[in-house]
Amino acid sequence: MISTLHPFPLPPHPPPPPSSSKPQTPSLPTSPHLLLDLSSSPADLRRILPHLMKRGLHRDPFLQTKLVSLFSRFGSLSEASLVFDSIDGGDKPDELYHSMLQSYAKLAPLHESLAFFSSMKLAGVRPVVHNFTYLLKSCGENSDLRRGREVHSQFIANGFSSNVFALTAVANMYAKCRRVDDARNVFDRMPERDSVAWNAIIAGYAQNGLAEAALEMVIRMQEDGGTPDSITLVSALPACANVGCLRIGRSVHGFAIRAGFESLVNISTALVDMYAKCRDIERARLVFDRMRVKNVVSWNTMIDGYGQSGNAEEALRLFKKMLEEGIEPTDVTVMGALHACGDLEDLDEGRRVHELLVRIGLGSDPSVMNALITMYSKCKRVDLATMVFENLQVKTLVSWNAMILGYAQNGCSNEAVGLFSKMQHEHVRPDSFTLVSVIPALADLSILRQAKWIHGFAVRQYLNSNIYVATALIDLYAKCGGVNIARRLFDSTSERHVTTWNAMIDGYGSHGFAEAAIKLFEAMKDSPVKPNDVTFLSVLSACSHCGLVDKGRRYFASMKEDYGFEPRMDHYGSMVDLLGRAGKLDEAWDFIQKMPMEPGISVYGAMLGACKKHKNVRLGEEAAKRLFKLEPEEGGYHVLLANIYANASMWEDVARVRTMMEKKGLQKTPGCSFIDLKNQLHTFYSGTTNHPQAERIYTRLARLIDEIKAAGYVPDMDLIHDVEEDVKEQLLNSHSEKLAITFGLINTTPGTTIQIRKNLRVCNDCHNATKFISLVTGREIIVRDMQRFHHFKNGLCSCGDYW
Q1: Neighbouring C-beta atoms of residue 630, cutoff 10 Å
Q2: Dihedrals φ, ψ of 689, to 5°?
Q3: Residue among 637, 684, 691, 683 at smallest CA distance from 660
Q4: Residue 524 pLDDT greater than 90, yes or no
Q5: CATH fourth-level superfamily of 417-634
Q6: Which residues contact 697 (CB under 8 A, 6 or more apart)?
C-alpha cells in the first residue's frame, strides 16, 4: 500500500556500520536538480529522496519525470513505476508518460511496452515521435516483425510519415527483422536523408550479409553529397571483410587516415578484422601494433585473426602477451586461446587456459565449455572432453555436437553413435551439424544398414536437402560399400560444393573404379565448381589404386601448373604410392630425394609398403630407417621390414629386427575383421576360438578350404616363416577375414552379399582365397580393408589383383 506521506515506499536503510561514531550526513547541494544530476546509482536516489520530500519537491512534475528517467537509466523499472503510479492520473504530465514509455522500452518485455503505450493513448496522451522510435528499436531487437509493422502503421497514422528521424528508426527495425528490402523501400521514400539515415541502411545491408550492397550504398552516399563518418566506416569495414575485398578495404583505410578516424579504437579494431579476414594478416598486425589504445575487443580480434589464418602459434603467443599486459580476458578471448591450443594439440597450454577460465568465473559459460570440449578432443584426450561434457549443468545442442564430433575424430565410433542415440532419448532435436558429426562415425563402422537408417532419419528431420548432410551421406554410402547408391544421391543433389564432388571421386577411387573417378573429375572441371587440393589427392589416390601411372603424373603436374596449388605432404605420399605400387621403386626414391620439403611418415610409409610388395631390401631399409626416427613407437614398420628380410631369407636380420622390437616393447597391431549381422557386430581375430559358433565356423571353414582347393586355390606359404608346412597352412586358414566370411556364410541365406571390414591391409592369401570362395559359393563378398574396397564376385576381384 502506498503511503500518503511519501510518493512511493522507500526501501529500508542499511544498518549503520559497527562503529562507536555515527556516520556523518554529507553536505548536499542546495539545488535539487543538481542533486539528481550528481546521482550515480539507485542508492544515491534513495538517499536523496528524503531531502526532496522534506522540501515538498517530490510533487514537482519536472523532478518526477527526472526521477523516472534516472531510475530507468539505473535499470530499476520497478522503482520508476512506483514513482509513476504514486501520482494521480489527472496530474501526470505528458512528459512523464513519455519518460515512462522510454523506461518500458529499455527494460521491459516488448508486450509490456506496447501495453503501456496503449494505456498512454487511453489516458489521452498524444504520442510524440520519440515514442515510436523507442518501440521500433525494441521491435527490432526482438526481431518481432508483426508488432514492428503495427507500430509502423500507427506511426504513419499519427502523421510522422515524413519525419527523417522516425523513418530511420523504421528502416532500422525492418533491417533487424531481416527484411532489408522493406528497409530500403522506407529509405528510398525519405524526403531527405542525413548521415544517420545513410548509416542505418548501410548497417542494415552489412548485418544481413549483403556486403556488396552495403559498399554500394557507401559509394552512393558520397555521390549524394554525404560524407562518411566513423559510424559509416564501422559498417563498411566488416562488409569488406565479409566479401574478402581487400582493394576496397584498403581504400576505406586510406579514407579513415585522411579523415583522422584511424586513432579511434573501434575503427582500428575494424581495420584489424578486415585485413585478417581478407587474408592479409601481416597488415592486420601492423595496424594492431600501431594502435596507441587497445581494448579487449582489439586483442580478441587479432587473436581470432591469427586463429582463422591458421597461425595458432602466434594466436597463443599474443594471448599470453595480453595477459602479461594485465588485460582482463573475456569469454571470446578464452575461446580463441582454446581454439589455438586445439589446433596445436598443445594439451599443457590447454590445461592452463582451463585453469584460467575457472579462476575468472567462466566455468559455467556454455560457449566456453563447448570450446573446452573441442580443445580436449583435438588434443586426443577424449576422456577429459567427456568429463567436461558430463559435468555441464546445461547441455546445449552445440555441446552434444561437440562431444559427438570429438568421439568421431578420435576413432571412438561406437561412443559417438551411442551418444547420438542418448541425445534422441533426451529429446534433444539434432541439426545438420549433428548429422555431419555422427555420419563419419557410422562411415568408420562401415555398416550399410546403418547408412540407410541415418539417411532415412535425415529425411524425416527434413535435413537431407542440406548440402553438408547430403555430402556426408554420399561419403557414408561409399565407405559402407554402397558406391552405386552414393552416385544416385550425388546425381540427385541440386547444389554441389567442392566437398560433394570430392566425396564421390574419392568413393570411386577407394572402390578401385579409377576410370569412373577420372571421368567425374573431368566433368567437375567443366562445372562451375573448381577442384581444390583435396580433389587432386582423391584423383591421385584413384590412379594409385589402379596403376594409372601416366595419368597420375599428369594430374600431379596439372595441380600446380594449371591450378596453382602447391602439393602438400599427402600429395607427395600419393605419388610415391603410385610409383611404388607400379614397381617403379627407383623413380619413387628419386622423387622423394627431390621433394622441396622434408619427407614425412606418409611418404616413407608408402615407400616401405612398396618395397615389401616388390621385395626390395635396399630401399626398404632406407625407408625404414627414416620411419624409425619419425615414429619410433610404431611397431608396424618394424614388422614390414622384418617381412622384407624374411622374403629375402635374411634370417639374421629378421631376428635383429624382432629383438629390437622386444627391447622397445613394440607390438604389431593385431589384425581383426568385423561383420554385422542382425544388429550385432561380430569381431574375429586370427585364431579366434571364443566365439559362440567357433566349432561350426571351423568345421565349415575346413570344408570350404577343400572346396576352393578343388577349384584351384593354392595356399601362399611364403607369408609365414619359421614353422612347419602343415602349421603354416593351419595359421593361414585361421586368418580373421576367413573366419568372418565363414560366419557370414553360415548365418545368411544363399545369394546374400557378405560384407566384412578389416583393420589392416588384406593379405595375399586371404585375397586369393576370397576370390575362390566367391566362385564356389556364388556369393558376392565385399571386403573393406584399411586402404580400399575389394568386391569379389564369380572368382574375380574389382581391384584386378592390383592393390
Answers
A1: 16
A2: -130, -5
A3: 637
A4: yes
A5: Tetratricopeptide repeat domain (1.25.40.10)
A6: 691, 739, 742, 743, 746
